Amino acid sequence: MRYDPEDPNWPNRDRFVLSADHASMLLYSLLYLCEVKAMNPSYKQVGGLAVTLDDIKRFRQAGSRCTGHPEYGWTSGVETTTGPLGQGAATSVGMAIAERWLAATYNRPGYELFEHKVYALCSDGDMMEGISSEAASLAGHLQLANLCWIYDDNHISIEGSTRITFTEDVAARFLGYGWNVTRVADANDLELLTRSYNTFLDTHDRPTLLIVQSHIGYGAPHKQDTREAHGEPLGAEEVRLAKEFYGWDPDAQFYVPDGVPAHFREQLGRRGVTAHAAWEKLFAAYRIHYPELAEQIDCMQRRDLPESWDSALPTFPANTKGMATRDSSGKVLNAIAEKMPWLLGGAADLDPSTKTHLSFESAGDFQAPGEAGDYRGRNFHYGVREHAMCAISNGLSLSNLRPYTASFLIFTDYCRGALRLGAMMEIPVITIWTHDSISMGEDGPTHQPVEQLASLRAMPGMMVVRPADANEVVEAWRVIMQLKDRPVCLVLTRQAVATLDRTRYAPASGVARGAYVLADALNHNPDVLLLATGSEVALCIAAYEQLKAEGINARVISMPSWELFESQSQEYRDSVLPPEITARVAVEAASSFGWERYTGFGGTILGLDTFGLSAPMKVVAQHFGFEPAHVVAAAKEQLMRHVLSSEMRLS
Q1: 361 φ, ψ to 5°?
Q2: Residue closest to 332 by CA, chosen among 361, 347, 312
Q3: Which of 116, 164, 221, 574 has its CA 20 to 30 A from that of 348?
Q4: Quick one: 169 and 118 in the same domain?
């Protein structure tokens, strides 16, 4: 590998992903022996060692850099958080795609800035997980010759020998995917291992799977119960015997023989430092000849935005017919992407429906070079592979590109593992989810999301934004693009929603604070609060106008992002939701779960507690009560309840 231990964030380093993360101590030991330097959580400053011997001694203990499974941002040298099997392998595909795109976009004759390789160590479990198959299939299609998966074929999983579950011909499967496949029958055969790695380096038209057969160590002599042995340390007696075999002091604990760190320093360390220094010299010359491209690379590495990135953002005029927020989002996405070359992405076979296709002339399609496109393309086609799509997007983001992915909101159920790891890693992946409610109509309850919004809001670190109209979409994108340390779910409608008249109602810039007063009572003294997100905001506006005509003072609060709202000061939150006003109605065409934090237990929540219905959109809305008249009735009921409650207290 080409890797500089002095700077684990060097852009052209080779990547190593430990997808077989139950072997995490292997990675930690290597980080220690290679003397990889630590970086702060923002990966900008180099400090002491990433892993110390004390960290290793405190493996899996609080505060140790040697966590049970590798965690990105916590332990420098860990390229991605792994744990759920298959995630690391799929994420490595994103890293390989990123290298191909960077090389095609920024390399120039004599200036090969990007030419790194991506390695992933995989287990039997990784090979079984469906996400790995999704990712491997796409990698083969894209001919990612810079990608090498090393399959530790040891025939063991937690329940025992893989004979009971996993007897397929993995090599044949990967040959079918279009991979180069090599085998090493003995993990200790260094000559054949070297030959196999050289085969990978000499292969230029497909990824490589290196199948290495090995035997897993057990936790006690003659132990047959692999359910207990898998993933456990060897045990005191086996460790002692191993030390005696190598001629070491069998009583020494955490013993590192003299010369081992020096050997790593002279081999991997010297090689990496030399390669990095040459790269820096090359980049300095590149900066002179291609200053604009160099500035883009610098900006990308800092996760900064280019100047004037938002100069072409549209403004949408008031329109009662309006447009679907997926349509307005597509217009905004294209306006930003044309100004920001490393904003790229695609959908799981749905970009015509999610409106996420980049349509300007220079965008192109990311494909293996040929008639269909090339590696400079910025439109990615993931096929029907939602889970791999999100993991691949994590890999793109970990390479400092700015990726977006898209599908229908219901299909977040296929993506949860990768979404959760993205939130855990605090990386700014943009996920766009359309067809956001029962308003899908005839597609019925299998495609109508109900519990998905609540579950995404429950995910720590995930920001969920559900804008109400086209101009809220613009402001949502303005917020999203400035995020550096958290992923976001942008949730959009298929059906048209009115574009609100901002001369009558508050400006959409209130989106930046998560929730804002959209329409208020006279003298800012409401009797009842109407809260909503997305398309249901229009229902509350219609109800507000009717209540106003009847002399009832209501306030409409658009709440596109609970997470943003919760980050505001208590003073601001109280100004939007005055604590003394307890007559409250929340409206959202999704699960009612969670809204009680804003309505209180005495408020009314117009939501869903069942699955949807297969019928035309208007019939579905009427069936579940998502109509202005129902909101008006709920508001009046709230007011009556509070009047009666006040009278009872007075009596």
Answers
A1: -60, -40
A2: 312
A3: 116
A4: yes
Listed as ranges, residues in the chain with pLDDT below 70 are 41-46, 217-234, 644-651
Q: What is the CATH number of the domain that holds 196?
A: 3.40.50.970
Per DSSP bridges, beta strands 118-122 and 554-558 are unpaired
Whole-prediction pTM value?
A: 0.95
Q: Is residue 228 part of a domain?
A: no
Decide: 291 and 284 in contact? Cβ < 8 Å: no
Q: Do residues 479 and 598 both lie within one domain?
A: no
Task: Identify the CA nearest to 10 among candidates 94, 76, 86, 91.
Answer: 76
Same domain flag for 426 and 547: no
- Whether residues 383 and 468 share a domain: the answer is yes
Q: How many domains does the chain have?
A: 3
pLDDT tens digits for 74-128? 999 999 999 999 999 999 999 999 999 999 999 999 999 999 999 999 999 999 9
pLDDT number for residue 643: 74
Q: DSSP alpha helices (H): ranges in 302-365?
A: 325-337, 351-354
Helix/strand/coil percentages in the chain, nearest 5? 40, 15, 40
pLDDT of residue 42: 54
**412 & 546 share domain:** no
| Catalytic residue positions, numbered | 386
Tally of helices (H runs) and strands (E runs) in the chain: 24, 22
Same domain? For 459 and 409 the reply is yes
Scored b (16 or more CB within 10 A) or e, 184-203 reads beeeeeeebbeebbeebeeb
Q: Are residues 266 and 345 in the same domain?
A: no
Domain span holding position 381: 319-498
Give residue 74's region: left, alpha or beta (phi > 0; psi -120 to 50).
Answer: alpha
* pLDDT at 557 (0 to 100): 98
